[in-house]
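Sanity check

After download, print the first record. It should look like this:
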Amino acid sequence: MSLLKRIQRGETEFAVFANRRRFFLVAAALILLSFGGLIFRGLNLGVEFTGGLLVTVENPNGASVAETTDAIRSAGIGDVTVQEVDGGASIRIRTPEFDSATEGELMETISTVAGAEPSDLARVGPTFGALVLQRFLIALAVFLGFVVLYISWRLEFKMAMVAIAALFHDLSITVGVYALTGFPVTPATVIAVLTVLGYSMYDTVVVFDKMDEIVSVESRAPYSAIVDKSTNIVLGRSLGTTLSALLPVGSILLIGAGIMGATGLTDFALALFVGMIAGAYSSLFLAGPLLAMWKLREEEWAERQERYGDVEVTADVTDVLRQQEREERERRRQGPPTLTGEVGRRRDT
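Expected C-alpha coordinates:
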Protein backbone atom coordinates (compact mmCIF):
# COMPACT_ATOMS: atom_id res chain seq x y z
CA MET A 1 0.00 0.00 0.00
CA SER A 2 1.36 3.44 -0.93
CA LEU A 3 2.33 5.97 1.72
CA LEU A 4 -0.38 8.42 0.63
CA LYS A 5 -3.02 5.72 0.95
CA ARG A 6 -1.75 4.76 4.40
CA ILE A 7 -1.82 8.42 5.50
CA GLN A 8 -5.36 8.76 4.21
CA ARG A 9 -6.48 5.64 6.09
CA GLY A 10 -4.62 6.60 9.29
CA GLU A 11 -2.43 3.50 9.13
CA THR A 12 1.02 5.08 9.28
CA GLU A 13 3.37 4.41 12.20
CA PHE A 14 5.38 7.60 12.55
CA ALA A 15 7.15 7.74 15.93
CA VAL A 16 6.15 11.27 16.89
CA PHE A 17 6.95 11.07 20.60
CA ALA A 18 10.31 9.33 20.10
CA ASN A 19 11.40 12.14 17.76
CA ARG A 20 10.03 14.91 19.95
CA ARG A 21 13.46 16.46 20.57
CA ARG A 22 13.95 17.01 16.84
CA PHE A 23 10.53 18.63 16.53
CA PHE A 24 11.19 20.80 19.59
CA LEU A 25 14.60 21.82 18.23
CA VAL A 26 13.11 22.94 14.91
CA ALA A 27 10.41 24.92 16.72
CA ALA A 28 12.92 26.51 19.11
CA ALA A 29 15.20 27.52 16.23
CA LEU A 30 12.33 29.15 14.35
CA ILE A 31 11.11 30.99 17.45
CA LEU A 32 14.63 32.26 18.23
CA LEU A 33 15.01 33.38 14.61
CA SER A 34 11.67 35.18 14.85
CA PHE A 35 12.64 36.95 18.07
CA GLY A 36 15.98 37.87 16.51
CA GLY A 37 14.14 39.50 13.62
CA LEU A 38 11.92 41.40 16.02
CA ILE A 39 14.87 42.62 18.09
CA PHE A 40 17.28 43.57 15.32
CA ARG A 41 14.93 44.49 12.47
CA GLY A 42 11.60 45.21 14.09
CA LEU A 43 8.24 45.31 12.37
CA ASN A 44 7.55 47.46 9.36
CA LEU A 45 4.37 49.03 10.70
CA GLY A 46 1.99 50.37 8.09
CA VAL A 47 0.95 53.97 7.87
CA GLU A 48 -2.26 53.06 9.71
CA PHE A 49 -0.16 52.45 12.85
CA THR A 50 2.52 55.11 12.52
CA GLY A 51 0.68 57.90 10.75
CA GLY A 52 1.99 59.77 7.72
CA LEU A 53 1.36 60.43 4.03
CA LEU A 54 0.00 57.87 1.60
CA VAL A 55 0.42 58.95 -2.03
CA THR A 56 -0.89 57.09 -5.08
CA VAL A 57 0.18 58.10 -8.57
CA GLU A 58 -0.21 56.64 -12.07
CA ASN A 59 3.03 55.46 -13.63
CA PRO A 60 3.13 56.18 -17.37
CA ASN A 61 6.95 56.32 -17.25
CA GLY A 62 7.08 52.76 -15.95
CA ALA A 63 9.34 53.73 -13.05
CA SER A 64 10.44 50.80 -10.91
CA VAL A 65 10.29 50.62 -7.13
CA ALA A 66 14.06 51.08 -6.91
CA GLU A 67 14.05 54.11 -9.23
CA THR A 68 11.22 55.79 -7.35
CA THR A 69 12.82 55.10 -3.98
CA ASP A 70 16.21 56.47 -5.10
CA ALA A 71 14.63 59.61 -6.55
CA ILE A 72 12.73 60.38 -3.35
CA ARG A 73 15.76 59.70 -1.15
CA SER A 74 17.92 61.93 -3.32
CA ALA A 75 15.49 64.71 -2.45
CA GLY A 76 16.46 64.28 1.20
CA ILE A 77 13.55 62.06 2.28
CA GLY A 78 15.06 58.87 3.67
CA ASP A 79 12.08 57.18 5.35
CA VAL A 80 10.02 56.03 2.36
CA THR A 81 8.26 52.83 1.30
CA VAL A 82 7.29 52.30 -2.34
CA GLN A 83 4.95 49.65 -3.72
CA GLU A 84 3.78 48.82 -7.23
CA VAL A 85 0.03 48.66 -7.79
CA ASP A 86 -1.73 46.85 -10.65
CA GLY A 87 1.49 45.38 -11.99
CA GLY A 88 3.31 48.71 -12.04
CA ALA A 89 0.52 50.77 -13.65
CA SER A 90 0.47 52.84 -10.48
CA ILE A 91 2.78 53.46 -7.54
CA ARG A 92 1.94 53.86 -3.87
CA ILE A 93 4.37 55.82 -1.67
CA ARG A 94 4.29 55.91 2.11
CA THR A 95 6.27 58.49 4.11
CA PRO A 96 6.06 60.27 7.47
CA GLU A 97 4.33 63.64 7.58
CA PHE A 98 6.41 66.70 6.69
CA ASP A 99 6.09 70.45 6.65
CA SER A 100 4.44 72.02 3.61
CA ALA A 101 7.74 72.83 1.87
CA THR A 102 9.08 69.27 2.12
CA GLU A 103 5.70 67.87 1.11
CA GLY A 104 5.68 70.07 -2.01
CA GLU A 105 9.16 68.85 -2.92
CA LEU A 106 8.00 65.25 -2.44
CA MET A 107 5.01 65.76 -4.78
CA GLU A 108 7.25 67.32 -7.43
CA THR A 109 9.74 64.45 -7.23
CA ILE A 110 6.98 61.86 -7.52
CA SER A 111 5.47 63.63 -10.54
CA THR A 112 8.83 63.76 -12.28
CA VAL A 113 9.78 60.14 -11.78
CA ALA A 114 6.31 58.71 -12.50
CA GLY A 115 5.33 61.10 -15.30
CA ALA A 116 1.97 62.08 -13.79
CA GLU A 117 0.50 64.15 -11.01
CA PRO A 118 -0.41 62.23 -7.79
CA SER A 119 -4.04 61.12 -8.02
CA ASP A 120 -4.57 60.50 -4.32
CA LEU A 121 -2.99 62.01 -1.22
CA ALA A 122 -4.11 60.82 2.21
CA ARG A 123 -2.95 61.96 5.61
CA VAL A 124 -3.36 59.14 8.09
CA GLY A 125 -3.02 59.59 11.84
CA PRO A 126 -1.83 56.84 14.18
CA THR A 127 -5.15 56.86 16.06
CA PHE A 128 -6.76 54.32 13.73
CA GLY A 129 -3.86 51.90 14.11
CA ALA A 130 -3.90 52.26 17.88
CA LEU A 131 -7.63 51.46 17.89
CA VAL A 132 -7.04 48.38 15.70
CA LEU A 133 -4.24 47.19 17.98
CA GLN A 134 -6.36 47.73 21.09
CA ARG A 135 -9.25 45.74 19.66
CA PHE A 136 -6.86 43.03 18.47
CA LEU A 137 -5.49 42.59 21.99
CA ILE A 138 -9.02 42.47 23.42
CA ALA A 139 -10.09 39.90 20.81
CA LEU A 140 -6.95 37.85 21.49
CA ALA A 141 -7.58 37.84 25.24
CA VAL A 142 -11.23 36.83 24.76
CA PHE A 143 -10.23 34.12 22.29
CA LEU A 144 -7.60 32.64 24.60
CA GLY A 145 -10.03 32.77 27.53
CA PHE A 146 -12.67 30.84 25.60
CA VAL A 147 -10.02 28.36 24.44
CA VAL A 148 -9.00 27.59 28.02
CA LEU A 149 -12.59 27.33 29.23
CA TYR A 150 -13.84 25.19 26.35
CA ILE A 151 -10.95 22.72 26.19
CA SER A 152 -10.88 22.42 29.99
CA TRP A 153 -14.61 21.64 29.97
CA ARG A 154 -14.65 19.40 26.89
CA LEU A 155 -11.30 17.65 27.47
CA GLU A 156 -9.01 18.73 30.32
CA PHE A 157 -7.09 21.71 31.65
CA LYS A 158 -3.63 20.41 30.68
CA MET A 159 -4.73 20.13 27.07
CA ALA A 160 -5.88 23.75 27.20
CA MET A 161 -2.49 24.93 28.45
CA VAL A 162 -0.63 22.95 25.79
CA ALA A 163 -2.95 24.40 23.14
CA ILE A 164 -2.03 27.91 24.31
CA ALA A 165 1.66 27.01 24.03
CA ALA A 166 1.07 25.80 20.45
CA LEU A 167 -0.68 29.08 19.62
CA PHE A 168 2.32 31.00 21.00
CA HIS A 169 4.54 29.04 18.59
CA ASP A 170 2.30 29.88 15.63
CA LEU A 171 1.98 33.54 16.51
CA SER A 172 5.74 33.95 17.11
CA ILE A 173 6.69 32.46 13.75
CA THR A 174 4.07 34.45 11.84
CA VAL A 175 5.17 37.75 13.38
CA GLY A 176 8.82 36.78 12.93
CA VAL A 177 8.36 36.27 9.18
CA TYR A 178 7.01 39.81 8.91
CA ALA A 179 10.00 41.13 10.83
CA LEU A 180 12.53 39.22 8.71
CA THR A 181 10.94 39.98 5.33
CA GLY A 182 10.02 43.59 6.04
CA PHE A 183 6.46 43.21 4.77
CA PRO A 184 4.29 46.02 6.14
CA VAL A 185 2.00 45.20 9.05
CA THR A 186 -1.48 46.53 8.30
CA PRO A 187 -4.94 46.03 9.81
CA ALA A 188 -5.39 43.23 7.25
CA THR A 189 -2.40 41.48 8.81
CA VAL A 190 -4.02 41.70 12.25
CA ILE A 191 -7.22 40.12 10.92
CA ALA A 192 -5.22 37.35 9.25
CA VAL A 193 -3.40 36.55 12.50
CA LEU A 194 -6.71 36.08 14.34
CA THR A 195 -7.88 33.82 11.51
CA VAL A 196 -4.69 31.76 11.79
CA LEU A 197 -5.25 31.21 15.51
CA GLY A 198 -8.65 29.75 14.74
CA TYR A 199 -7.24 27.34 12.15
CA SER A 200 -4.46 26.25 14.47
CA MET A 201 -6.80 25.70 17.41
CA TYR A 202 -9.10 23.56 15.27
CA ASP A 203 -6.25 21.23 14.28
CA THR A 204 -5.02 20.97 17.87
CA VAL A 205 -8.47 20.13 19.23
CA VAL A 206 -8.87 17.41 16.57
CA VAL A 207 -5.65 15.75 17.76
CA PHE A 208 -6.56 16.08 21.44
CA ASP A 209 -10.06 14.75 20.87
CA LYS A 210 -8.66 11.64 19.21
CA MET A 211 -6.31 11.13 22.18
CA ASP A 212 -9.26 11.40 24.53
CA GLU A 213 -11.16 8.79 22.53
CA ILE A 214 -8.26 6.34 22.60
CA VAL A 215 -7.73 6.83 26.35
CA SER A 216 -11.37 5.80 26.89
CA VAL A 217 -10.86 2.41 25.17
CA GLU A 218 -7.17 1.66 25.83
CA SER A 219 -6.16 0.23 29.21
CA ARG A 220 -2.48 -0.66 28.81
CA ALA A 221 -0.57 1.59 26.41
CA PRO A 222 1.38 4.55 27.88
CA TYR A 223 0.50 8.08 26.93
CA SER A 224 3.41 8.34 24.51
CA ALA A 225 1.96 5.47 22.45
CA ILE A 226 -1.47 7.09 22.55
CA VAL A 227 0.05 10.31 21.18
CA ASP A 228 1.68 8.41 18.31
CA LYS A 229 -1.51 6.53 17.47
CA SER A 230 -3.70 9.62 17.61
CA THR A 231 -1.37 11.67 15.45
CA ASN A 232 -1.13 8.96 12.82
CA ILE A 233 -4.91 8.55 12.72
CA VAL A 234 -5.62 12.26 12.16
CA LEU A 235 -2.53 12.92 10.00
CA GLY A 236 -4.36 12.55 6.70
CA ARG A 237 -7.26 14.70 7.84
CA SER A 238 -5.03 17.48 9.17
CA LEU A 239 -2.78 17.54 6.12
CA GLY A 240 -5.77 17.50 3.80
CA THR A 241 -7.44 20.38 5.63
CA THR A 242 -4.23 22.42 5.66
CA LEU A 243 -3.37 21.82 2.00
CA SER A 244 -6.91 22.62 0.85
CA ALA A 245 -6.70 25.93 2.73
CA LEU A 246 -3.17 26.72 1.53
CA LEU A 247 -4.04 26.34 -2.16
CA PRO A 248 -6.32 29.42 -2.43
CA VAL A 249 -4.09 31.43 -0.09
CA GLY A 250 -1.03 30.50 -2.16
CA SER A 251 -2.93 31.53 -5.27
CA ILE A 252 -3.52 34.95 -3.75
CA LEU A 253 0.20 35.31 -3.05
CA LEU A 254 1.47 33.97 -6.37
CA ILE A 255 -1.17 35.07 -8.86
CA GLY A 256 -2.89 37.95 -7.12
CA ALA A 257 0.16 39.70 -5.67
CA GLY A 258 3.02 38.31 -7.75
CA ILE A 259 1.55 38.25 -11.25
CA MET A 260 -1.44 40.62 -11.22
CA GLY A 261 0.22 43.11 -8.90
CA ALA A 262 -2.55 43.22 -6.30
CA THR A 263 -0.05 43.91 -3.55
CA GLY A 264 -2.76 44.95 -1.10
CA LEU A 265 -3.62 41.26 -0.72
CA THR A 266 -0.08 40.32 0.29
CA ASP A 267 -0.42 41.65 3.84
CA PHE A 268 -3.39 39.37 4.47
CA ALA A 269 -2.30 36.30 2.50
CA LEU A 270 1.26 36.07 3.85
CA ALA A 271 0.10 35.87 7.46
CA LEU A 272 -2.43 33.20 6.55
CA PHE A 273 0.06 31.15 4.55
CA VAL A 274 2.81 31.17 7.18
CA GLY A 275 0.41 30.78 10.10
CA MET A 276 -1.38 27.78 8.61
CA ILE A 277 1.89 25.92 8.05
CA ALA A 278 3.10 26.76 11.55
CA GLY A 279 -0.27 25.74 12.98
CA ALA A 280 -0.26 22.35 11.27
CA TYR A 281 3.28 21.70 12.52
CA SER A 282 2.49 22.61 16.13
CA SER A 283 -0.75 20.63 16.17
CA LEU A 284 0.77 17.43 14.79
CA PHE A 285 4.31 17.43 16.16
CA LEU A 286 4.45 19.70 19.22
CA ALA A 287 1.14 19.62 21.08
CA GLY A 288 0.94 15.85 21.51
CA PRO A 289 4.52 15.28 22.73
CA LEU A 290 4.27 18.27 25.10
CA LEU A 291 1.07 16.89 26.58
CA ALA A 292 2.55 13.38 26.91
CA MET A 293 5.60 14.71 28.79
CA TRP A 294 3.25 16.49 31.19
CA LYS A 295 0.88 13.53 31.60
CA LEU A 296 3.71 11.11 32.30
CA ARG A 297 4.34 13.05 35.51
CA GLU A 298 0.93 11.92 36.79
CA GLU A 299 0.97 8.89 39.07
CA GLU A 300 -1.50 6.89 36.97
CA TRP A 301 0.40 7.30 33.71
CA ALA A 302 3.80 6.89 35.36
CA GLU A 303 2.65 3.56 36.84
CA ARG A 304 1.29 2.44 33.48
CA GLN A 305 4.58 3.37 31.81
CA GLU A 306 6.54 1.42 34.42
CA ARG A 307 4.22 -1.61 34.33
CA TYR A 308 3.73 -2.03 30.58
CA GLY A 309 6.79 -0.23 29.19
CA ASP A 310 6.53 0.72 25.53
CA VAL A 311 3.43 -1.35 24.77
CA GLU A 312 1.78 -0.10 21.60
CA VAL A 313 -1.87 0.80 21.32
CA THR A 314 -3.83 -2.38 20.54
CA ALA A 315 -4.44 -2.93 16.85
CA ASP A 316 -8.23 -3.02 17.18
CA VAL A 317 -8.49 0.45 18.78
CA THR A 318 -8.99 2.05 15.38
CA ASP A 319 -11.74 -0.43 14.57
CA VAL A 320 -13.43 0.27 17.92
CA LEU A 321 -13.34 4.03 17.30
CA ARG A 322 -14.69 3.62 13.79
CA GLN A 323 -17.49 1.43 15.08
CA GLN A 324 -18.36 4.07 17.66
CA GLU A 325 -18.43 6.73 14.93
CA ARG A 326 -20.71 4.57 12.78
CA GLU A 327 -23.06 3.99 15.69
CA GLU A 328 -23.14 7.72 16.46
CA ARG A 329 -23.93 8.56 12.82
CA GLU A 330 -26.69 5.94 12.82
CA ARG A 331 -28.23 7.41 15.98
CA ARG A 332 -28.19 10.87 14.44
CA ARG A 333 -29.71 9.57 11.21
CA GLN A 334 -32.57 7.79 13.00
CA GLY A 335 -33.42 10.81 15.10
CA PRO A 336 -34.51 11.10 18.77
CA PRO A 337 -36.73 8.51 20.51
CA THR A 338 -40.49 9.00 20.29
CA LEU A 339 -42.83 9.19 23.28
CA THR A 340 -43.37 5.41 23.06
CA GLY A 341 -39.64 4.82 23.39
CA GLU A 342 -39.17 3.83 19.75
CA VAL A 343 -36.62 5.47 17.57
CA GLY A 344 -38.27 7.58 14.94
CA ARG A 345 -36.70 8.45 11.63
CA ARG A 346 -36.47 12.04 10.61
CA ARG A 347 -38.71 13.01 7.74
CA ASP A 348 -37.28 14.88 4.85
CA THR A 349 -39.34 17.94 4.18
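If your output differs, re-run the checksum step. Summary of this record's structure: Residues 52-124 form a domain with the Alpha-Beta Plaits fold (CATH 3.30.70.3400).
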